[in-house]
Write a structure and sequence with these properties.
By secondary structure, the protein is of the alpha+beta class. It is built from four helices and 13 strands. It is elongated and about 120 Å long.
């Protein structure tokens, strides 16, 4: 069989029709799967997330339920300029499109400021170290109060006129006053030092040197 007869036999009409039919079936199958997935996942359909920031939680919950969405409080914060129980943040954000039944996570404003424990800085750190630790935690610092003691050493903390200690929990929005040493000391803190080389010369009536420590004996009994 020569090459011409071979190609004529292989490339007959029946084989070409079968190949064409297979291609058509594959294309239709791909289109059908893609269209079916779009229908199943509701591709292109979605609910736009409303703006919830500044809204009371109860009102936001009713609004989302009307749209077929859920709401969950994931965290709390504190903003004294806003009323308690209002929403500070949301995820997903406003304008994003989500599927029906999707959950919106919100951060709600706390009715009172959070409290934090005072770190171990009283009588254990310098002014610079104490300021760095407290400001990193979010505390506000009032002007320092100078007291007698080692310069720039922290001897105490005042919060609204009350002295607080290490470990005490204080609201984060309460200003703190550090009691810091001025480098000066009270006269009562002074100490008298005695020179170990100091000696006192004692002389008798004739001007002769005598020992400072004289043994005293009882006088002899009268006869």
């Amino acid at each position: 069989m020569n090459a011409k007869k071979f190609f004529k036999k292989v490339c007959n009409r029946f084989l070409l029709l079968n190949l064409l039919a297979m291609v058509v079936v594959v294309v239709l199958l791909c289109l059908g799967v893609g269209y079916g997935l779009d229908l199943y996942t509701h591709h292109g359909e979605g609910i736009e997330v409303p703006e919830l920031k500044g809204m009371r939680y109860q009102k936001a919950r009713l609004l989302l339920e009307e749209k077929g969405l859920n709401i969950v409080v994931s965290d709390s914060g504190y903003n004294k300029t806003l009323p308690a129980d209002c929403i500070l943040a949301q995820m997903p954000g406003h304008g994003q499109k989500v599927k029906e039944g999707h959950t919106i996570y919100v951060t709600v404003n706390s009715p009172s400021s959070p409290t934090f424990a005072i770190p171990d800085i009283v009588d254990n750190s310098s002014l610079r170290e104490a300021e760095a630790k407290l400001t990193a935690m979010g505390f506000r610092l009032a002007p320092t109060q100078r007291v007698t003691g080692e310069k720039d050493w922290v001897y105490g903390i005042l919060c609204r006129g009350r002295r607080v200690s290490n470990g005490d929990r204080v609201p984060i929005d309460y200003p703190l006053t550090l009691m810091v040493g001025s480098g000066a000391y009270d006269d009562t803190d002074s100490i008298d030092y005695v020179d170990s080389n100091y000696s006192m010369d004692v002389t008798d009536e004739g001007g002769n040197d005598v020992d400072e420590f004289v043994e005293v004996t009882e006088p002899p009994a009268a006869e």
